[in-house]
Amino acid sequence: MASPNVIPTIHTLLRRELAAVRRSIEAYPDEKSVWAERPGLPNTGGNLALHLAGNLQHFFGAVLGKTGYVRDRDSEFSRRGVPRAELVKQLDAAALAIDAGMKAVTSERLAQPYPEHVGGRTIPTQDFVVHLLSHLAYHLGQIDYHRRVVTGDSTSIGAIAVKELGTG
Hints:
Helices cover about 60% and strands about 0% of the residues. The protein is mostly helical.
């Protein structure tokens, strides 16, 4: 059984990484650059933001938090030209979904199977929640690199800042 102290830590890290995704999207100088395609980069910043928003709203909001969100995963990668204001709105909805899902997470819940089969497998909730956190951080890095490649701006958006962690 997981330590109850890990739950607020996971919640904090999810919100921290998602806030950095939001800052990354806001750091693009214009709408067009968010959707710029470059050789060797399989996804645009906009598609990654849509994907993360959909992923978090589904797995935390709909499955754990029972929000009723219905995901359209294909559109996360096929849509183009979505205004940044809409991307930010979806990321803010994802933050609320994280909160809803994490309210349902207890030490007992972490030890149980995640309520939905993922990839045809039964996975412990703790393992899947940590996976979702690393998935978020992975795509945050991709968005940051996409922005830097597209704009030539190497300015940091303060991703994964240690100062945003709790104190013990």
